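Troubleshooting log. The previous structure file for this entry was overwritten by mistake, so regenerating from the original sequence record. Sequence copied from the archived sheet and checked twice against the printout by T.R.
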Amino acid sequence: METIESIDNQPSLKEQRPSFLTVLCILSFIFIGFSILFGLFGIATGPMNADQLLESSVQISKSADEMRSLDMESFAIMMEQIGRMTVSINNHFYVNGILSLVVMITGLIGVIKMIQGHKIGFHLYIIYSLITIGQLYIFVSPADIPSFVVIWNLVISGIFVLMYSRNLKWLK
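Regenerated output below.
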């Protein structure tokens, strides 16, 4: 009888949070936390003024010209896209900033729910990942978004969703 009692008092393996999930959540907390802090700081400082935007455009044009002189046309095009993307985001600065904060908070809630053992957190994290990828398309023309930005976000988000999915059996 004591053996049964001692087994009942010990938490089962199903109840213990996997260490892999804990590590993933910590990494997500760090990234999302910094993103929220930088987002709040960005909103507090405001958009670039006309002089700063002009200086940024000049620097990007110089970089693009330098890349063309080195026969790196694809990188020059990418730099020009980044310049146009910067202008578009700056034109919608506050709406983009607030939307980014809402999306980051959605991701944070998802991670908190997953660390608590709730499967809804995984679904919120997927929503956060998809909106993060698609958010640029709300404010920037698709022609002005460099492919590497989308591919990088897809790869990183996909890796994290895949790693989180490995812990679904523990989530309720």
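Residues 19-48+93-165 form one domain. Archived copy saved in two places this time.
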